Amino acid sequence: MSDKPEATGTRGFREECGVFGIYGHPDAANLTYLGLYALQHRGQEAGGIAAWNGKRIGVEKGMGYVADLFDEARLARLPGRSAVGHVRYSTAGGSLLENAQPIVYNTNKGPLAIAHNGNLVNADELRAELEAEGSIFTTTSDTEVLLHLMARSRAESLVEALRDTLGRVRGAYSIVLLAGEKVFAARDPQGFRPLTIGRLGDAWLVASETCAFDLLDAEPLRDVEPGEIVILDAGGVASSCFAMGRRTAFCVFEHVYFARPDSTVFHRSVAESRRAFGRRLAREHAVAADVVVPVPDSGVFAALGYAEESGIPYGMGLVRNHYVGRTFIEPKQSIRSFGVKVKLNPVRSVVGGKRIVLVDDSIVRGTTSKKLVRLLKAAGATEVHMRISSPPTTHPCHYGIDTPQRKELIAATKELEEIRTFIEADSLGYLSLEGMLHAFGKGEGETCAACFSGRYPVPFAVAQEQQPLFGHDDVLPLGGHSGNR
Questions:
Q1: pLDDT digits (tens, 9 = 90+) for 95-109
Q2: How confident is the model at residue 83 (pLDDT cuts 50, 70, 90)?
Q3: What is the pLDDT of residue 336?
Q4: pLDDT of residue 462
Q5: Measured on CA atoms in the order 148, 57, 259, 350, is the torsion positive or negative?
Q6: Of the candidates 311, 320, 418, which has an alpha carbon nearest to the alpha carbon of residue 363?
Q7: Which of 173, 211, 193, 300 is nearest to 254 (CA)?
Q8: What gap in Å lies between CA 233 and CA 24, rounded to an integer?
Q9: Going by DSSP bridges, is the β-strand pair 228-233/236-241 parallel, antiparallel, or unpaired?
Q10: Which pLDDT value is given to residue 337?
Q11: Quick one: pLDDT at residue 283?
Q12: How far is CA 372 from the centre of its chain?
């Protein structure tokens, strides 16, 4: 995706979070580690695993990549048959160790460990209320609000306490909860974020994406439905519905960028969605060119679709360096566009002397797109026609994706021709909102496309300085059934 974080400080849409849970396997923590490894693309800031050893919940977590955080010795400190795990990129709460998840509490409901993907839009309001009543918070994460609400619930059973809690929060959440040996999973009533159930022999699993099951040779079974609580225990899988039948709001950006292409998300192959976006993009924005080049990795399948539909040959004209970590030592002497060049390098034999269709998933600030256009022209490309497999990104996300403020989004402040001029492309074309949703196979009434449309499915409090970004009419109704079940 264009404008990913770089060493140069460029900041665009960043990953969200990934969750994993397992019940009934003797190597629960080890399998959780592998599941998180497969979900690493959803967050590279922090990771953690909590496991039930029969007496208490042990937890190991830290800042950085999963493979760097865990070794055999650390995993050996997490014995047990049940575990939950988390990879994080902060969207609520700072980049601090105390905000790493799972968060573990000893409560009047017993020991609990929770991991959460999403964002609670009324977390500040609930936190203020809880603090006024004497609750003490140890993190700045909205996830901790869930634990406090559960602990304060007067319900006797854990599932009823969870129902009470989820009845009070609004926003996006896919949750895994370790309660003694049992694992609970829940998804918000709109189903913003994915969450899937799987099976491995006698063990039950839950994960943000099916790619985690593929690594473990586990069988994907079904999604946790929006508004459903699932309990994994000795009896298998039990279900409790707390708010089903509402308007769904599946995040289309999961298919545009966030999810891995080898995953099935919202009952649909991510790879096939991206190819469909590319095919529709080729119909909407045809251009005479010699080669279709993707911006790896998220632009690959959309570029394949564009090439298939247009008949223009596909070529890997940019190679990604997969060994660039979160930080690296920059050269003391300035190298132009170093932050981009260290990650992507042109293949001169593919792009030299060619008219190029450059396919990417989105443009956030425009700075990285400009550097890529310059990079390709410096490598000999005669023309670079930028094609984006989603509509212009005009609004920030409030449901669990870390996005810039609206004033920092180039499409919110510039017209199409101004953006084309800024990125120095010979032409620029975005996939239309109608075209994207048609290719996705779901209408706007069952998806969340607020970052493109400004129409937010769930209302939320707006800071005074943000109020001009959207009005009351941009909040879609919650009533009615989408017919998606």
A1: 567 789 999 999 989
A2: very high
A3: 61
A4: 56
A5: positive
A6: 418
A7: 193
A8: 7
A9: antiparallel
A10: 65
A11: 98
A12: 24
Nearest to 119 by CA among 445, 406, 413, 450: 450
Model confidence pLDDT, tens digit, residues 47-82: 999 999 999 999 999 999 999 999 999 999 999 999
Domain 17-248 has CATH 3.90.1150.150: no
Question: Facing residues of 229 across strands?
Answer: 186, 240
Q: Looking at 12-21, 224-233, 415-424, which range is the least confident one?
A: 12-21
Strand 228-233 vs strand 203-207: parallel, antiparallel, or unpaired? unpaired
DSSP 136-151: --S-S-THHHHHHHHH
Output the six-digit token pair for 379. 């490598």
Closest to 365 measured CA to CA, from 403, 398, 391: 403
Q: Please, are residues 77 and 130 in contact by the beta-carbon 8 Å criterion?
A: no
Q: Which residues make Cβ contacts (< 8 Å) with residue 247, sequence separation at least 6?
A: 190, 445, 446, 457, 476, 477, 478, 479, 480, 481, 482
Instruction: Say if residue 135's pLDDT is above 70.
Output: yes
Burial class, 333, CB count within 10 angstroms (exposed 0-12 / middle 13-18 / buried 19+): exposed
Q: Tokens 């490598």 label which residue? A: 379
Domain boundaries, the chain: 17-248, 274-322+336-442
Residue in 17, 397, 448, 451 annotated catalytic: 17
Per the annotation, the verdict on 17 as an active-site residue is: yes
Calculate the CA 391 to chain-centre distance.
18
Q: Is the dihedral of CA 62, 66, 68, 70 positive or negative?
A: positive
d(Cα 343, Cα 362) in Å, to the nearest integer?
Answer: 17
The pLDDT value recorded for residue 16 is 72
CATH architecture assignment, domain 274-322+336-442: 3-Layer(aba) Sandwich (3.40)
Q: How far apart are CA 113 and CA 237, in angstroms?
A: 19
For the cut 50, the answer to whether the pLDDT of residue 363 exceeds it is yes
CA–CA separation, 171 vs 186, rounded Å?
13
Rounded distance between C-alpha atoms, residue 338 and residue 42, angstroms? 25
17-248 shares its CATH topology with 274-322+336-442: no
Sign of the dihedral through C-alpha 176, 179, 184, 187: negative
The dihedral formed by the CA atoms of 436, 442, 447 and 448, expressed in degrees to the nearest 10: 0
In the beta sheet, which residues pair with residue 264?
269
Residue 334 phi, psi dihedral angles, 5° rounding: -65, 130
In this prediction, residues 253-258 reach a mean pLDDT of 95
Q: What average pLDDT is seen over the chain?
A: 88
Instruction: Output the CA torsion sign for 70, 72, 76, 82.
Output: positive
Asked whether the whole model's pTM tops 0.85, one would answer yes
